Amino acid sequence: MSLNYNHLYYFHVVAIEGSVVGAAERLGVTSATVSEQVRTLERTLGRTLFDRLQTGLQLTEAGRMTFEHTMPMFRLGERLVTLVGKRQDADRLLRVGVCGPTARSSTTELVIPLFELQDLRPMIRNGETAELTRELRAGNLDLVLIESHPSESMLRGLEVVLIHQMQFIAIAPPDIEPRDDWADVRMVQYSAATSYRHAIESFLEQASLRPSIVGEADDPHVHVEAAARGGCIAIVPRPAALDALLSGRVRIVREIEDVHLAIHALFRENAPARQAVRALIVAATATSKGE
Question: What gap in Å lies between CA 171 and CA 83, rounded to an integer?
Answer without folding.
Answer: 53
